[in-house]
Every structure is written in C-alpha cells, then in structure tokens.
Amino acid sequence: MSVTLATPSFLRAGGRRRLSLGIGTVLLAALMLFSLFPGFFAPYDPIAFDYQHLSAPPSLAHWFGTDNFGRDMLSRVIWASRVDLEIALFCTLFPLIFGTIVGALIGFYGGWLDAVFGRLVDLVVTFPFLVIVIAIVAVLGPGLINMYIAVSAVGWVFYAKLMRADIQVQKHSDYAAAARVLGYDSARIIFRHLLPNAITPIIVYWMTDMALALLLGSSLGYLGLGAQPPTAEWGVIIADGKNFMSTAWWISGFPGIAIVLAGVGFSLVGDGIADLFRKRS
Amino acid sequence: MTSTARDPLLSVEDLRVSFGTAHGQLIAVDGVDFEVGPGEVLGIAGESGSGKSVTLRSILRLVRPPGHVSGKVIWRGRDLMTLSEPELRRVRGGEIAVIFQEPMTALNPVLTVGTQIRENLKEHTTLDAAGRQARAVELMDQVGIPAGKTRLEDYPHQFSGGMRQRAMIAIALASNPSLLLADEPTTALDVTIQDQILKLILRLRQELNMSVILVTHDLGVIAQTCDRLAVMYAGRVVETGRVAALFRQPRHAYTLGLLNSVPRADLVRQPLASIPGQPPSPTTMPPGCPFAPRCRFKVGPCDDAVPPLVEVAPDHRSACIRHQDVAGAGA
A185 touching B, CB under 8 A? Predict the structure, then answer.
C-alpha cells in the first residue's frame, strides 16, 4: 500500500464518526431553533381552522398540506416541536440529576443502601417501562405534568444503576485513595473526584434517553394520556390523523418523520459524544 | 543521629492486619513494631505479599473492610487508630502525605495538576487564592518541573512518567507534611528517572525537614536513600537496624539471602544466589519461624515458636535464633 488515495475525511472511520455527530448536531440544532422560535418559522397559526382548505394535500401554500380542520400541517409540526423538546427535557432532567446523585452515593457507600436499591431495581425492571408509566398516569390522570411525574418516578432508577456501577469501579482507583490520604471528606471525594470521572456514560445515556422520552411522550400523546388536544404534539397529531391515513397521509406522515428525525438526532449526538470520550481514553 | 536519642515522630506498636476471606482468616501483618525519628528515612523492604504495603496503608487507616486492623500508631502523642474522622482528615495530607507507585492512576485525570495542588492547599492551609497560586508555582519549581506556571494548567495525561511522579509529589507535599509515606514510588519508572525521583525525595526531606517511610522491594533503592531499614517477611519485621550495619553484617538468614541475591559491582563476578522455595501462604503459616522452611541455617527449635525480635547489637534487632551464625556467615 505505497499509493495512498485521497479519501475524503468524512469517509474514513474517524471522519464517519465525526460526520454522524455533525448530522446529529444539525438535526438537534434545527429542532432547538424551531422550538425556540416557532412563530418565526411557522407560516400559519397552528390552531386556526380554514374551512376553505380541508385535508388539502401538500402544495406551495401549505408545504405539508392541511388537516381535516384546514389547519396548516407545517405550522402544527413546527409548534409541536416545542412541546416535544419540552417532553424530552422534562422527562429526563429529574432522573438525570436525582439518579446521578443517588447512584453516586449508593456506589460509594454500598452496604444496606445497595441491597435496598438492588431490590428496587429488580422491581422496576420486572415491569415493562411503558406499562408502569401508563399505570401511574392512569392513577394521576392524563396530561403532560402527570406524565413527567410518572416517567421521572421510574426513570431515575436507570441513571442511578449506571452511576452506581461506575462509582464502584472508580472508588477503588488510586486517585480515590490519593484523595482520601490528602484528607478530603467523602462528599468531596464523591462529587468532585469520582463523579466527573464517571459522568460520561451518564451523558451518553441521557442523550439516548431523551430520544426514548420523545417517543414515549408521542406514544402517550397518541394514547390520549400525554399532551391533550388542541395542543399540537407530534404523537397527538398522528393520533388525530390516523383515521385519514388512506385519504390524507400527510396529516400523520409529517409529524411521524419529525419524530424519527429528532430521535435520530439525539441518538447520533449521543453516539458521537461516546466516541469522542472513547478516543480520549 | 540514632532514633533512640530523640523521641520518635511516629511509632507503630503491635500492628496487625487481617482479612476475612472465604478460605479463613488471612493474616497480612502480624505484630509489626517500628519507629521513625524526625528527619529520618526508614526503608521497609520485603518481597510481594510480605505485608509492607498493607503496613504503610494501615498507618493512615486506608485498609477497608473486610480488612481488620489492630495495634497502635502513635503520631505526635496521639493514636491514629482511635482518632475521629475529622481529626484524622487533618492529619491526612496536612501532617502525613502519601505518594503511590503508579503516578498515572494516582492523579485525578479530569483535574489539572494546578487544581489538585490548590485543592490540597485550600484544605490544609490558611492561604488565600493568590497565596495558593503562588505556592503552587513555587512547588512546581521545587519538584523540578520546568515552566511550572504554565504546566499547572496541564492535565496529568499531558505529563511524562517522571514528570507525573514529580507532579504527584508536588500535590502530596503542598501543605508541608512532616512525614511522607512512599509506596514503591520509583517502581513504575525507568532507572534514570528512578534515580532523579529518589534524589528529589531526599532533597525535599532536607528542605522541608520531614521524615520518610519508603516501601520498596529494591535493596539498591534502600542502600541509596535510607537511614534505617526494616526487613519484612510473611507479615513480620524480621530484622531492623541502621542500613549500613545491616548491609555490612545481616543478622537474619532472610536478610542475608536477600543481599546475596542482589548483583554487586564491587565483588568478583559470581552466580547470584537465590533463596529456594516460596514464602508461606498467609492462610497457612508455619508454627515457628515463617522463614524456617526455606532457611539453610535452620535448626530444631526454629519450628517450635516464632522467634521474637530481639536486640542483637546496638540499634540492631533480629528475629533469628541463629543470628550469630548468620552474622559470621555474612562477614
């Protein structure tokens, strides 16, 4: 192999990884822009009825068509991105913070705390995630806030499990012993020395979890347990359009594509971050 | 400069460390006594599994369950074994510092060296932020890291092996401890760097007027750096005394065997004598002298009881029944 062909950088292994991180970042950036400034991007009012154009197919005036009430689908999909990003964030923020702290403490101290936590994990993983969440929402009543509560109540366990495992490894490292012989107390050792060394898998998992939360939020919206109409939320819109699938595919189709793109964006960014950290270590 | 002339800074009395395992009680350290005087460098030598590192770690109560430690560690009149956790934290890092064998893993990879030095200073001194920064720069200079001011902002992985060990020493010594515990500080380094680091430790001992306990399996390192030596075998100190006397005339069969297994430049070339056999397993100790099964001086009484560590010459103690014959053979 004396002749080296000039391969474009994005086709090489490292380049491909960077490319996927790049695509993911672009997708998430777009999602973020749409959700921060929906009024700027959406051409119409997302809840204004237009009886002149009921279930109109995609056209220059309505790029994504209109639904059975004549509402502009592009505007609805853009406004819904705000709700769905909110779902992705609010379903994962509490589990991220609480689960990380609890997992770090359990991993560090172990003992009976660990035993109790182990049983809790068993309990949670025995049920399919969606089933527990639906059960909790059924008790609390449908709506976004109750959905956040339900998902958070269960979701933190997975972050804690991940953190616990990593802290258990880190706490036996030499630098942890070094921190101890420098006279630092346990809180400082856990949160300043061990946690930053164990946070990478958590960040990566968080990205993936946001994608899953998005899908979950849409699923619950579809089932009528999440966002309530007339709030534009991708899952809710898909549910609304399902009766018109054969005559007006665009009502369910475009929010479906939006969910896929957002999910892919989170996943690619999560993978990309994981690769970056792997390369460094 | 004998240790008996002054009060010892640290004295370890009847230290015992055991670990509960599935195969029964494993005795790692079995009644160890030693003292360290002010400004003195004590070497603890022994092969792998002799309990030297565990001994060092139990001084600062670093042995975690299922390890069990008993005995006394008297530091400036206080027993570290019974100290409360906050009091112990003031001693750790502030009065007694530790450096480890593997500098790469003993430094926190996500914090800069400067951050780690300043953190120690914040914990154990009353310096303000500017004072801590100034002291950190000074420390980098003291341990011989060039361009210290800019290198403070570097992460451990940006340092070479020798520089990393220097950085670890700078972190450990930031608060001017009076005693440095060094656990095989040069084992992971190549020979030229090893020499530099040992010289650095000796120089800092002078400058900071501190004592050092140096754990190593390398007798060359001991000869080069230590004032006194304790030789450990199977969890016990078998011989202790001044390094010069001990090297000139060992009075324990194990020490003699160790010295004979080291190549010496000043003698006619001859085959190295190794000690036959293996150290006893910590779960199945022989009833008598633990070295007896491998000992060429062994006599009947060696198997009866563990020989006590007794004074065999001024400031020279040995746990060997036949110390006089060993002394004759070594001379």
Answer: yes
